């Protein structure tokens, strides 16, 4: 990606497609101090610990950002926050 705007546009577009396909229900994305937080409400594999959803989000960041990231998942009320750093 040539700029941070391109990265954000690609990320939003990809997450919207995943939402439209029913893979996850996107709540929002926040960019804060070297981290990106992707919040979702539902995941198709939620009952089994979301291994595929975690893999999809990791792959999305690795391909869009072209670098490896660490991902932590935090459950808050009825949603999950994927904290990518």
Task: Describe this entry's structure for a reader.
This protein is an alpha+beta fold. The protein has one domain: 2-Layer Sandwich (Hypothetical Protein, Haloacid Dehalogenase-like Hydrolase, Chain: A, domain 2). The protein contains 2 helices and 4 strands. The protein has helices spanning 4-20, 51-65, and strands at residues 24-32, 35-43, 71-76, 79-84. It has a 4-stranded antiparallel beta sheet with strand order 1-2-4-3, with helices on one face. A hairpin with a 2-residue loop joins strand 3 and strand 4. Helix 1 runs antiparallel to helix 2. It is globular. The two termini are 17 Å apart. 16% of the residues are buried. The model has no long low-confidence stretch (mean pLDDT 85).
Brief account:
The chain is of the alpha+beta class. The chain is built from two helices and four strands, in the order H-E-E-H-E-E. The protein has a single domain, classed as Hypothetical Protein, Haloacid Dehalogenase-like Hydrolase, Chain: A, domain 2 (2-Layer Sandwich), CATH 3.30.1240.
Helix content class? 25-40%
Largest sheet: 4 strands, antiparallel
* Element-by-element helix/strand order: HEEHEE
Number of domains: 1
Instruction: Enter the CATH topology name.
Output: Hypothetical Protein, Haloacid Dehalogenase-like Hydrolase, Chain: A, domain 2
Indicate the CATH architecture.
2-Layer Sandwich
Strand content: 35-45%
Mean pLDDT: 85
Largest beta sheet: strand ordering: 1-2-4-3
| Count of alpha and pi helical runs | 2
Low-confidence stretches: none
Radius of gyration: 12 Å
